[in-house]
């Protein structure tokens, strides 16, 4: 029994102290290397994020003097285009994230003729003002599309409140047709949120007289008026358009209307719109 126990003891592998120390040392070296690689990756990610935010800031810093695209020179348009391409490069090839797209976006700049004509009209006509313009996407729980509302705040001086006198809404359905392209199918045009000026209210119901039931009814009708005009019918096909979302993150949206329809620069709007 003793000899058998002795033999078993002799064949058991012997763990040397030096090997143990070497294993601990190597494990420490691997841990240190992993920590170093992780730290290096974090540094690279931080640098990339800083670079992106700097490029976005440069882009937004170019456009304030353009009056949202109304007043631009050829050099300015070229500079804006170059700055857009740089920012777009950070998001190239990624599929549209509808959870990021969902929400309200404020227009900062465009070269789209159908929007610039509104700005040009407001600049020429003393009785017409164009306020803020928004795009409101509703697609939080959708996978391949949703609803988008183009919201235009406008006014008629002395009749409506300045810049916020009324709201024009163009509603469209959109569907994702590729990784970055959406197709818009317009459904209706609506007019709502009419806020008449103090001058007009004074005409309808003079301040020196008690407001009659009729005058109050007129004021209430104007303020709650809402008109919706469909742009589709059984006899005609809906107007549509292809829109390329060239960059998207939590606070910036860049887009291009396919077919030479112009570019758009939006930033996230946190206020409740319409």
UniProtKB/TrEMBL annotation:
Compartments, record wording: Plastid
Keyword line: Plastid, Transit peptide
Gene Ontology annotations for the cellular component aspect, listed alphabetically: plastid
Keyword Nucleotide-binding carried by entry: no
Pfam family, one: PAP_fibrillin
Entry-linked InterPro entries: PAP (IPR039633), PAP/fibrillin_dom (IPR006843)
Keyword Plastid: yes
Leader sequence residues: none
Primary localization: plastid
Residues of the Plastid lipid-associated protein/fibrillin conserved domain: 56-266
Name this polypeptide is given: Fibrillin 8
């Amino acid at each position: 029994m003793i000899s058998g126990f002795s033999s078993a003891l002799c064949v058991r592998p012997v763990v040397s102290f030096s090997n143990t120390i070497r294993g601990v040392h190597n494990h420490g070296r691997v841990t240190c290397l992993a920590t170093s690689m992780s730290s290096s990756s974090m540094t690279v990610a931080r640098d990339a994020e800083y670079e992106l935010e700097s490029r976005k800031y440069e882009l937004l810093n170019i456009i304030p003097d353009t009056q949202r695209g109304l007043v631009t020179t050829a050099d300015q348009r070229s500079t804006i285009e170059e700055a857009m391409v740089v920012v777009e490069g950070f998001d190239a090839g990624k599929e549209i994230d509808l959870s990021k797209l969902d929400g309200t976006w404020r227009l900062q700049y465009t070269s789209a003729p159908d929007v610039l004509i509104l700005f040009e009209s407001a600049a020429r006509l003393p009785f017409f003002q164009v306020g803020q313009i928004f795009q409101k996407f509703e697609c939080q729980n959708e996978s391949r599309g949703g609803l988008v509302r183009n919201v235009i705040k406008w006014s008629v001086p002395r009749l409506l409140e300045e810049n916020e006198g009324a709201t024009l809404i163009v509603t469209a359905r959109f569907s994702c047709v590729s990784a970055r392209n959406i197709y818009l199918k317009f459904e209706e045009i609506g007019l709502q949120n009419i806020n008449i000026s103090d001058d007009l209210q004074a005409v309808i119901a003079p301040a020196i007289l008690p407001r009659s039931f009729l005058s109050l009814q007129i004021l209430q009708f104007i303020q709650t008026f809402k008109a919706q005009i469909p742009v589709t019918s059984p006899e005609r096909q809906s107007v549509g358009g292809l829109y390329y979302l060239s960059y998207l993150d939590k606070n910036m949206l860049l887009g291009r209307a396919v077919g030479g329809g112009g570019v758009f620069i939006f930033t996230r709007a946190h206020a409740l719109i319409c």
